[in-house]
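Components:
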Amino acid sequence: MSLVEIKGLKVSFRQHGGEVEAVRGVDISLRDGESLGIVGESGSGKSVTCLALMRLLANTASITADKLELSGIDVLKANNRKMASIRGSSAAMIFQDPATAFDPVFTIGHQMAETIQTHRGLSKKVAMAEAEQLLLKVEIKNAKDVLGYYPHQLSGGMLQRAMIAMALSCRPKVLIADEPTTALDVTIQAQILQLIKGLQAEMGMALIMITHDLGVIAETVDRVVVMYGGRVMEEGLVEDIFDNPKHSYTQSLLASLRAGETRRIEPVASEPVAPALELKNLAKVYKLKRRGRIFSTYTDFSAVRGVHLVLPRNKIVGLVGESGSGKSTTGMMAMRLLEPTTGRIVVDGTDVSDLGIEALKPYRKSMQVIFQDSYSALDPMMTLSQIIAEPLDIHQMGTSRERTEKALGWLERVGLDRNFGTRYPHELSGGQRQRVAIARALILEPKVLVADEPTSALDVTVKAQIIGLLKDLQTQMGLSMLFISHDLSVVRSLTDTVVVMYKGRVVEQAPTGAIFANPRHPYTRALLDAIPVTNPRHRRHRTFLQQADIDKATPHYVVAELPGHAQARPEPQLVAVAPGHLVEAVVTR
Amino acid sequence: MSTQIDTGATPLAAPPTTKQRSPAYFAWRRFTANKAAVVGGFVLGIIVLMAILAPLFTKTDPTAQAYLTQSLAFPSSEFWFGVDDLGRDFFTRVVYGARVSLSIGFAAATFSLLIGIPVGAIAGYFGGRIDWFIMRIIEIFSVVPSLLAAMLLGALTGGGYVTIVVIAAAFGWFGVCLLVRAQVKSFREKDFVRSAQALGASPWYILRRHVIPNSLSPIIVGFVLAMPGAMMLEASLSFLGIGVAPPTPSWGQMINVGINFMFFYWHMAVFPTAALAITVLATTLFGDGLRDALDPTLKGR
Amino acid sequence: MIVYLIKRLLSIALTFFIVSLVVFLMMHAVPGGPFDGNDMPVSAEVRAKLMARLGLDQPLWVQYVSYMSGVLQGNWGVPYQSPGETVISLLRQAWIPSLILGGSGVIIGAILGILIGMAAALKRNSWIDYLASALSVLGLTIPVFVISMMLILIFAVWLGWLPASGWGKPERWILPIAAYAAIPLATYARYTRSAMLDTLNRPFVTALRAKGLSERRIIFQHVLRNSAIPMVTVFLPMFIGTATGSIFVEAMFRIPGLGSYFVSSIENRDYPLEMALVLMVTIGICFAYLISDIAYAWLNPRIRLGDDT
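Structure:
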C-alpha cells in the first residue's frame, strides 16, 4: 500500500482580481521507505503540493483531487482532529528557514517536548529526556544546554538540526523536507544532507525532498519528479533522469548544474599591464558592543584581515567563501561603500583609498557594483529608463533626451525590449530586474565591476541567462569583474581566477581550472568536497572537518621547496606554490 | 559557457505583465476596495465643502441673535436644527462650527508636517546619536498627556485659536516624525540607495531623488491622521471653556452649553455632538484607508 | 534584564524631573498670580506680604528646588483655595472616586476589549469582526465627553433607566464606569485583533500545525503569548488617555474626583494644588510606563536574557 497517493491534485488561490492556479493536475505516489525528490523552480507548485497533502494551506486555497491520501487517510475528507493527529506522526515537515519553524518565545526543549507529549502522551519529564536524546542524534553535542535555549540563541545550522530532531520525535513514516538546505553554506548543507540520509536509513523512513537544486537530488533520492508551472514534466529513477533527461526543462536544469565541468587548467599568461584593481592589505575591524553589568565593553572583531587581491585587466576573478568569510565586506571596501580600517585600494594605477567624496566622484565612474537583491536594487517609484539613466544624471552627462536615449539603448543591450522603458520595477521578474541593474551599472562604461552574489536569488535557468549576459558584456567591453559568490558551480563556469576566503583571510588563489583540479589548502578541499555531486552514481560518504582541524592541516613548506622568493615566518602567509597559484601556508627553513 | 541572450518574453522567464501600471494606480485600487474609507473620504469632502460654502445656504451670521423670541425652539422646517438659547439659528452655528474645527485641523496638521518631516528624515537618515537624541525628546513628549498640558497652557494664555493650533502641532508632530523616520530608515538600507552612493551621489541628492518620493505615503497619511487629534483637542478645550472664545461657534463649546439644556432641549446637545463625532470618524476612516492603501510594502507586488 | 530595567528607571526618573520643571516654569511664566483674580482684590502692600509669606517672591529656581525637596519628603504644600488643609488631605478624598470608577472602567473595558479582539481575529469577516472594528474606531475617535454625553442622553434622559450624576450609591457608578471603559475597550479590541492577526500570519504557526498540535493549544499557548507584546506596549498610551478622560467624565457626571480639582485649580491659579495634580498624574504615567517596560522585558526572551540583539 502506498504511503502517499496523490492523483489529479489541483490547487488554486483566490487573490486580488482572480484565481491563481498553483498546481494543475499532479500525480505522485510514494511507498514506505522510499526517497523521492520533487525538483522545480519557484512557482512550480512543488511546495504547495506537499502543503496540500498535509492540509496546511490557508483558507484562500481551494484543493481538489481524485485522490489525496496520506497513510491511508483521505486528507480531503478528514476532520481537523484527525488531521492534527497524523501531522507530525505520520508525516513530518521541515522547512527552509528554521527560525520560522520555532516559536520565538518558548525554549527549544519546551517545543520539542510538546510535540512528543501531544502524540505519544508521555509526561513532561520523559518527553524532555527524549528530546535530549534526539538532539544528540542530530549531532548537537551540548544537547542538555540547548534544551534551555531560545531559538534566537542558536546559529542557522544548529537550528536546522534542532528542527530535524523535532520532526523525527514522533517517528514519522515520511519526512517532507522543503528546501531544507537552500539557505545554508555549502559545507553545512553537505552535513545536513548526510544527516538526513543517515537518519532516513536508520529509521526506515520515507523521504520527500523538495528542492530546486539538482545536486541535492543527486545526493539524496532514488526517484525524481520534475515539476514546472504546476504540472509534472517528467519522472523516473534518479539515474535515468540524469543520464537521459527527456523534457527540455529537465535538460536545461542539468545543463546549468553541469556548467563549467569541462573547465581545464589553462596556462597563465604574464601580465605586464597595470591591473584594473588592486587591493593591498585590506582589513576591516568592527567594534562589537558586549553589554556588561553596568557598562558595555567593546571587543574587536576582524571581519577581514590583510587581504591582497589583484584583478587583472579584462579578466573575471571569483571571490568565494561561506558566510562569515568576509568576501562581501571585501567587495564593499573595494568600492569604498564601506571604509577599510587599513589597507589601500588602487584603481587602474591610482590609489583611491584616501580621497574625499568630491575627489572620489570621477573615479566612481570607473568602478560599479551590482547586488544580490534585485528587489531592493531598483527604486520602486522610478521608471526603468529613469533608473538606468540615473548614473548619467548624477554625473551630469548629456542632455535629458540624450540620457533617455542612451538608457533605452542599454535596455536593449541587456536583452529587454525598448518599450519596457516606461515600466516600473514591480512589473518585472527577478531576472529582468537584475538585467536592469546590470544596465545601470554599465552605462558609464566602468573599468571595474564588482558583482556581489548577483545570481544567488535567481532560479536556475534564469541564473544561466544572467551569467551568459555578464560574460558576453564582459568580453564586449573588456570589463574587469570581481565576482563574489558562494555558488561554486557558477564560479567554475564564469571566472578566470578564483580567490578563496576563509574567516577574513585569503587562503588560496589560483586560475579556476587549477583550483578545482588541484586544491592545496585544506579549507578549499573541504569546500570543494562539500559540493553536491552532479551524477547520482558518484554519491559518497563524506567526513567533515571542524575549524580546529583545518587550522591544524595548514600546509607547511620549507623555503627550498618553493619557487620564487619566500621568507620563513612563524605566522601563516600566502606563498606561491606554482605560477599564479597562491596558498596560505607556514614556511619554515 | 554562454547561453542565448533572449528578450524578456521567453516562455521560461515570462512575467505576468499585461499593462503598465504605476504604483499610484495600485494604491488607488486598494483604497477604493475599502468601503469604509471611501465613505469616510466622501463624507469628509462634503463637510469641507459645507464649511467653505457656508454663507451660501445658511440664513444669517452665526453670531446674530436674530430669533430671540424663539429661543430654544425645537427643530422645524424653518429652523432645521432649532434655535439655541441665545436666539441664534442652530443650523448656522453648527455649520460654521465646522469651519473652526476643520481649519484648526488643517493648520495643526500642516505645522505637524513642517516640523515632523525634516526631523524624521534627519533622524532616519543619519541615525546614530542624532536619532537617539530625537527619540528621547519624542519619548518625553509622549509621556506628557497632551490634553493636560494643553489645558495648562490654554488656561494660562487665555485660550484662543492660535494657542490651540500651536498646542495641537506641538503634540502632533511626533506622529508624523515617527512615520517618516521609519520609512527613511527602511529605505536607507536598500540597495538602490547604495547603488546611488556607489555612483557618487551626495546625501542630498539621495534624499531628494529617492527618499522623499518614497516617503510621500507616510507624509500624506501623517497629515490626514493628525487632523482628528487636533480637532478633538480643540473640542475638548472649548468644552472646558478655554478654547475658542465665544461667540465664535465651536462644537466643543456648544456641547458644553448643551449639557445644561440637555434634559429638555435635546437638540442643543445632539447636533453638535453628532457633528463632531461624524467629522472625526470620517477623517479617521479616510486616513486609515489611505494608510492601508499606501503601505509601501504592498506596492504593486 | 535587571540592567535594562535600571536604565529604564533612570530614564523615567529623568523624564519625571524634566516634566515637573517644565510645568513649574509654565505656571510661573504666565503673568498673573493667585491674587490677581477679580474676586479677591487686595492692596499692594497686603499682596506683597502674602507673596512673601508664600515664598512667591523668591527667584524661580529657588522656589522650584524648595518645592521639589518638599515633595520628596512628603510635603506637598497647602492649597490656596482652602488654606486650612494640606494638599494631601484635600486630595485624599478625591482619590477614591477617581480610582474606583476609573480603575473599574479600565479593567472591565480592557477585558472586554481583549475578548472581543480575540474573537474578531479568530473569526475573520464574521459579525464579531465587524463589531470589533466598529467599536474600536468609534471608541477611539469620538471624544470621551461625547461618549459620556451620549450615554447620558440614551440611558438617563431617554430611557430613564439610570441616574446621570452624582457620586454615592453604586447605581450612580454604572454610567461613569461605562464612559471610562470606552477607551480601553476600543484600544484593546483593536490592538488585540491586529496583534493576533499578525501572529497568525507568521510562518511559525504553520510549523506548529505541521507538528500536529491542536488548534486550541496553538492559539492559547503560542499565538496569545506572542501577541502579548504589542498588547502590553499599548497599555501606556491607553492609560494616559484614561487619565485625561477623567477630567471630562467627572465634569459630565459631576463626580468630585481628581479631575474636577484639576479644572478648578487652573482657574484659581492655585499653584500648589495644580502642581500636585500634575505631578501625581505624571507619577502615575511614569509608573504605567515602568510596568509596561517590565512586562515587555519579561515577555521578550531576548531582553530577558540580556542578549545583544
